[in-house]
Amino acid sequence: MARNIGPVCRLCRREGIKLFLKGERCLTDSCAIERRNFPPGQHGQRRRPRVLGYGLQLREKQKVRRMYGILEGQFRGYFEKAAIRKGNKGEILLQFLERRLDNVIYRTGLATSRPQARQNVLHGHFQVNGRKVNIPSYLVKAGDVIEVRPTSRENPCLLAARETTAHQAAPSWIEVDRENLRARVLSQPQRQDISFPIQEQLIVELYSK
Fold it and tell me: What distance in Å separates the CA atoms of residue 62 and residue 28, rounded to the nearest whole number?
C-alpha cells in the first residue's frame, strides 16, 4: 500500500499552513510552522513569488490531498466519482474525504492525527457494525457504528488519544460515546462541518481543464 513516509512537517511548511499531521505537537511551539514558517529547501527563505492561476489551483489540491493523507491517483479517483454525481462537485469531493474511516476516527477524537488513525485502522483496532475493518479508505455511511474492537479496548495508544483529545468537539454528523470508545454516523457530512480553510472550487477548476 503506497503512502508518504517522508518528514510530514515539511509538507506543512510547503503549504504554509498547519495540516495537523503531528497531533498535539501542532498545537505547541514545537510546530514547524511556528519555528520556520517558510518553504523547505535551501531557497525556502527567499521572497515567495506571487502564485496565480494554475499554481494557485495546484497548491490548493496539494494542501487538501496532503491533509487527508491521500496519494494523487486515489485523490483523482474521488474527484471522478464526485464529477458524475448531481450537485456541487467540490462539496461532494469533500464528503468522500470526510467519510473515510481514518478521518472519521480522527474527527471523533480516537486518534490525535489522521496518520495515527490510519495506522490504528491498519493494525485492526476498529470495527464497523460489528465487523473488523482494516481499510483506512473505507467509506462510512449514515447509521454505521464505529467502535474499538474488544481485544483493543485496553490499548495504551487509543486510551492516551482519548484523553489527549478530551477537549475536541465532534462534528454534528457524528455521535460520539467516548466512554465506550464508540461513534455512530448520523448523516452525511455537510460543507459547514469542515472549518479548515479549503477552496474546493479551485480543485474542481484544476481537474476540469
Answer: 24
Give Cβ neighbours of residue 192 (< 8 Å, ≥ 6 apart).
Answer: none
Whole-angstrom distance, CA of residue 142 vs CA of residue 140: 7
Nearest one of 117, 112, 166, 164 to 140, comparing CA atoms: 117
Residue 72: count other Cβ atoms within 10 Å of its Cβ.
11
> C-alpha cell of 124?
485492526
Which CATH number belongs to the domain containing residue 128 in this structure?
3.10.290.10
Say yes or no to pLDDT of 103 above 90.
Answer: yes
- Domain residues for the domain of 160 are 100-187
Looking at the domain assignment, is residue 177 inside a domain? Answer: yes
Q: Are 149 and 111 in contact (CB under 8 A)?
A: no
φ and ψ at residue 105, rounded to 5 degrees: -65, -40
Specify if 54 maps to a domain: no
The three three-digit cell numbers of residue 182, written as one number:
464508540
Whether residue 123 lies inside any domain: the answer is yes
Q: How many domains does the chain have?
A: 1
This prediction has a pTM of: 0.86
Residue 15's pLDDT band, with cuts at 50, 70 and 90, is confident
Q: How far apart are CA 177 and CA 165, in angstroms?
A: 13
**What does the DSSP 8-state code read for residue 132?**
E
pLDDT tens per residue across span 135-155:
999 999 999 999 999 999 999
